[in-house]
Design goal:
Largest sheet: none
Order of helices and strands: HHH
Helix content: over 70%
Structural class: mainly alpha
Distance between the termini: 25 Å
Radius of gyration: 12 Å
Strand content: under 5%
Number of domains: 1
Length: about 60
């Protein structure tokens, strides 16, 4: 999924409440975010870090 498609999925979730769009966004971005989180911090904290990133993204 390219950047434009990711942005569209996120916007569909934020503005229309499309849960499937958020599932697509997370499924696409999570592996790359986990890889980055494992490189820059403690590997055991990667899941929590990624979850916190999604939470921050969804804050108004």
């Amino acid at each position: 999924m390219d950047e434009s498609a990711l942005r569209t999925s996120l916007n569909r979730f934020l503005h229309a409440g499309d849960a499937r769009a958020m599932e697509e966004f997370v499924a696409t971005t999570r592996p790359r975010l986990l890889k980055a989180a494992r490189r820059i911090g403690a590997p055991q904290d990667a899941d929590d870090s990624v979850q916190a990133a999604y939470h921050a993204l969804l804050q108004p």
